[in-house]
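Marked as duplicate of an earlier ticket. Keeping the data here for the record.
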Amino acid sequence: MAAHKTARDRAREEITREIVEEAKRQLAEQGAASLSLRSVARQLGMVSSAVYRYVASRDELLTTLIIEAYDSLGETAERSASASEGEPPIERWVAAARAVRAWALERPHEYGLLYGAPVPGYAAPEDTVVPGTRVSRALIGIVRDARNAGQIRRRTRGHTPLPDRLRDDFEALRADLDLVLDDATTLEVLLAWTQLFGLLSFEVFGQTRNVVDDHEALFEAAARAMGRHVGLR
């Protein structure tokens, strides 16, 4: 049975949520570097000292925003991967990539907080690590499912030589994700993942403006090419 919340607990949760929502609004208007508890308190009609009863510092507020954004993006990718079970692996991969892009375009400032320039003076704590891996785990899970179903194309081209330290990193990554792939395919998965977010970042931050008009078509074609490069059928 869930613990009963007192009126004080509920009031605290409500005020904390108001602080977070105001911080999101200011994030969209001014950017993460300009975010301050004093400004949040002023907009909520609170004295600056009162806000510290709910959020200890600007860094704690930023951490809350980052974790919420990572969880939201991760849930979006996980929901897509779950909804597409039974479909061809390449279509699952493209659908998940499409869902990630839609999230980023709807919430560009939160995407920028996660994948843009670091916020001066802020160092993300360990609390952000697990939420931060949800979206990549969802994408890699599609590859794992394809591998388990024998739906990854066998590689016929030569393998890229890898240094021993990178092989160790790959081994740890596969153990963490319960992934049975050779080093070459693991490399392809990492390249596909980083290229996917690299292209998305270029679009969100305007780097492909005046390069193409149909950004959606470019992204989908690239996502499909990345999936094929991994070996998804």
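See parent ticket for discussion. Residues 1-56 form a domain with the Arc Repressor Mutant, subunit A fold (CATH 1.10.10.60).
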